[in-house]
Amino acid sequence: LPSWLWGCAWLSILDMSGNNFEGSMPSEVLYLRGLAHLRLSGNRYTGPILPGLGSLPLLLELDVSINRLKGTLPADLLESRSLRILKAGNNRLSGPVPDALGDMETLFMLDLSYNRFSGGIPLALTRSPSLVHLNLAGNGLVGGVPAELGAMPRLTILALEANPLGGTLPDSLGNATRLQSLTMTRTGLRGTLPPSMGALGELSNLNLAGNSLEGPIPGEWGGMYFLNSLDLSLNQLSGEFNPRLGGMANLKDMKLSHNRLSGALPRQLGRNGFFHSLESLDLAHNMFYGVLPEDLLDTIYYTNADGLPEQRTLKVNVGQNSFWCPLPDWASKVSASCVWLEVHTLAYPEGKDGASVALIGSGFMRSLADGAQCIFGNKKTGVVKTDGVWESSSRVLCPDIPSQGRFKKRKNKFGELEPPREVIVRLGYNDTILTKFGQEYAFPA
């Protein structure tokens, strides 16, 4: 660099980012007493962060990210009374995160991501009155997520991913109502999702993927009205899809894959139901069953930035679940697979001459309760559908057996027309046959 540069004592902005400068950080910058913004990111600087930067009286921003710096943060820098932005991510800095950062009254953005810091998240840092953006991702931090983070009055962005923090999500996070982005992927989190986080009404991005979180997704989370992106994949979450999540009216991207979620998907799932803004939905590798909602393959028509009409189809992946066969023609487009339910035998609660019969099988999930049917007959005999009553995962009752006279008559060996003596009975749901094979029901003699 030319020597005359260091004579510009009242230079306000020095941006040397994105070059291949090597060696130590230039000590001559300390001559620039009027410097407010120093940007040295994307170089190959080595050694420690230059001592003395904290003595620059007007310094507002220091960006030394994406270098090869070692050591820790200089003590004089931590005493700066003007610094507002400190970016030191993607280096080789180490040691504990300094407590003194919490005493920097003007600091509103701190990025120490992807270094080699160790120890816990200092409680002193959570007492910062001005911190808005905190990024400690990609270090070796342990000791759990401090409950005190929920009391930070201005915190808007919190990134802690790729740290072996462990522990649980504190209920107090629901008090950080200014949060707009929260990322804690691969942090070893356990336990359940706090319902209190449903109070984060300004949150637009939430990523908790790759942990060991369990239990249901709280219905209270439907209060996250402005949420755009939700990623809870690669956990151990269970329970059914809560319709109250439909309160996330602005959600565009939902990833719930690789969990233990079960039950039937709500019919209102999709743009015509809960999620009017949804663009991508990943529910693969769970335990969902039932009928695929029609809205899953939904195409919207809109006007693009050039004023021209375009169409966009909702991107969906529901592979590796156990939906009921038969599937609709479009099922392959959402990677859906299915299983046929089976009727193994028939039972006669009132005896074989009684007015009811029960289908005994497997996989008869509770979601059958609102539309179970007993389907008697086939194309040859004619088909008669009656309402079924779901009783358990292995039993559906047919309380109203149709009379023989409701089926097609066929000629017997004497050439006489008579109704069938036996018909096949299968399980149905909302006029769809769910069992490939049925059992033979014989009418009383």
Q: Quick recap of the structure?
A:
The protein has one helix at 123-126; strands spanning 13-15, 22-23, 37-39, 44-47, 61-63, 68-71, 85-87, 92-96, 109-111, 116-119, 133-135, 140-141, 157-159, 181-183, 205-207, 214-215, 229-231, 236-240, 253-255, 260-264, 280-282, 287-290, 299-303, 309-313, 315-317, 322-324, 338-339, 342-347, 357-362, 372-378, 382-387, 389-392, 395-398, 410-411, 417-418, 422-429, 432-433, 439-442. With 445 residues, the chain is mainly β.
Mean pLDDT: 91
Query: Radius of gyration, Cα only, in angstroms?
Result: 32 Å
Shape: elongated
Distance N to C terminus = 105 Å
The biggest beta sheet is recorded as:
13 strands, parallel
Number of DSSP-assigned strands: 38
Helix content percent band: under 10%
Spatial sequence of strands, sheet with the most strands: 1-3-5-7-9-11-13-14-15-17-19-21-25
* Model regions low in confidence, pLDDT < 50 over at least 5 residues: none
Range of strand content: 25-35%
Number of helices: 1
Structural class by sheet pairing and helices: mainly beta
